[in-house]
Design a protein that fits this description.
Blueprint (H helix, E strand, L loop, with lengths): L1 H26 L1 E6 L9 H8 L2 H4 L2 E6 L4 H9 L5 E5 H10 L6 E5 L6 E6 L14 E4 L4 H4 L1 H7 L8 E4 L5 H6 L5 E5 H10 L7 E5 L10 E5 L1 H6 L1 H20 L1 H11 L5 H13 L6 H6 L6 H15 L26
Parallel strand pairs: 1-2, 1-3, 6-7, 6-8
Antiparallel strand pairs: 3-10, 4-10, 5-8, 5-9
Helix pairs in contact: 2-11, 2-12, 5-15, 7-15, 9-13, 11-12, 12-13
Subunit structure: Homodimer.
Pfam families: NMT1
Keywords: Iron, Metal-binding, Pyridoxal phosphate, Signal, Thiamine biosynthesis, Transferase
Length: 342
């Protein structure tokens, strides 16, 4: 009799635990998240957030998909295809200026500096921005570096009309450069440099002209969502920021763990290459920077963001969107909870 009662109690406890677990799982808010590109080392921020259940701890069930360029990601967020996106803030500014009735809003600064760049090979004879005049430059049409080239040209006294742009699919950009079909390409240095290395090009043969080092000290990639989504789901936005910070701290502490998390998501993930790409972003002050070290991850200097907005408006000859239509810091935790590891 006692044994029967004990079993009933045990099974009852198990049923309650299972029911609570199911209830918790059902309570998680589904969130569709788009990256800016195919899976790369810096995306391990969210690979670790998934693996270590930081999203779940903050009430979300996140599905993460690769992207096809920053410009494309912004369009997909504005169209409602995704809830949250990782994209270049310069693409956001351009889109918002041209679509004032369908703006997206940045709510967390992931990259302190833009990795937008022009990349060439030494054999082209291109060694500095002025050498680009009259040359063929290749890039996908929605590439953020291509869209921002006007500002780069202005900062370096290049006539934009002298450039012969060649449009190609994203996966053909570096191939066409190696084959000599174009003389330079635009893109994130952290993407194109390592794609070229992967294709067998020695790193010493690659010429990188970064926008940030050539007159454009602009902010880089951010997390974005539609304003109405943010207004309806403030808890999701706060939770996504917290999970992102936790994932970033973990990645900075242990890059190898981040690469392992990404390999679980994509078995073909090239750990060695992506480890080098991540180190490149950290060394260049993109993902880890003096400003983040001092003020906490996600920090935004209003004056520098104003400059980023103004530069974009001048390039595209559009009215500069108000700063509060481009970004918000409302969902940042206190700086003490955002400090990167020493």
């Amino acid at each position: 009799m006692m044994k029967s009662t004990f079993l009933k109690l045990a099974f009852g406890a198990m049923a309650l635990a299972f029911s609570a677990s199911m209830s918790t799982a059902q309570d998680l808010k589904p969130v569709k998240f788009s990256l800016d590109w195919t899976l790369q080392g810096n995306h391990a921020i969210w690979g670790l957030a998934l693996k270590n259940k930081y999203f779940e701890q903050n009430g979300m069930k996140v599905s993460m998909d690769r992207g096809y360029g920053s410009g494309d990601t912004v369009v997909k967020i504005a169209a409602g295809a995704y809830d949250i996106g990782f994209t270049d803030v310069n693409s956001v500014i351009k889109f918002n200026a041209e679509n004032p009735d369908r703006t997206v809003l940045a709510f967390y600064q992931v990259f302190d500096k833009t990795p937008n760049s022009i990349i060439a090979l030494k054999k082209s004879g291109i060694t500095k921005p002025a050498d680009l005049a009259g040359k063929k430059i290749g890039a996908p049409e929605s590439d953020s570096s291509r869209m921002m080239f006007g500002a780069f040209a202005k900062a370096n006294s290049i006539d934009p009309a002298s450039i012969n742009w060649v449009t190609m699919a994203p996966n053909l950009r570096e191939t066409m450069l190696v084959q000599g079909q174009v003389e330079a390409i635009s893109g994130f240095s952290s993407t194109s440099v390592f794609n070229l290395i992967s294709a067998g090009v020695p790193q010493d043969d690659i010429v990188v002209m970064s926008y940030a080092d050539n007159g454009l000290d602009l902010y880089g990639s951010v997390l974005v969502a539609m304003p109405d989504y943010i207004a309806k789901n403030p808890g999701v936005i706060k939770g996504f920021v917290k999970a992102t910070i936790s994932g970033t701290v973990d990645l900075l502490k242990d890059p190898a763990a981040g690469m392992a998390a990404m390999q679980e998501i994509e078995p073909m993930f090239e750990t060695k290459l992506e480890t080098a790409r991540l180190a490149f972003l950290m060394e260049k002050g993109v993902l880890k920077s003096p400003a983040f070290d001092k003020n906490g991850l996600g920090y935004v200097d209003p004056a520098r963001m104003d400059l980023t907005i103004k530069t974009n408006s001048e390039v595209y000859k559009v009215a500069a969107p108000a700063a509060d239509k481009v970004y918000t810091t409302e969902f940042l935790p206190p700086a003490s909870e955002r400090m990167p590891p020493k």
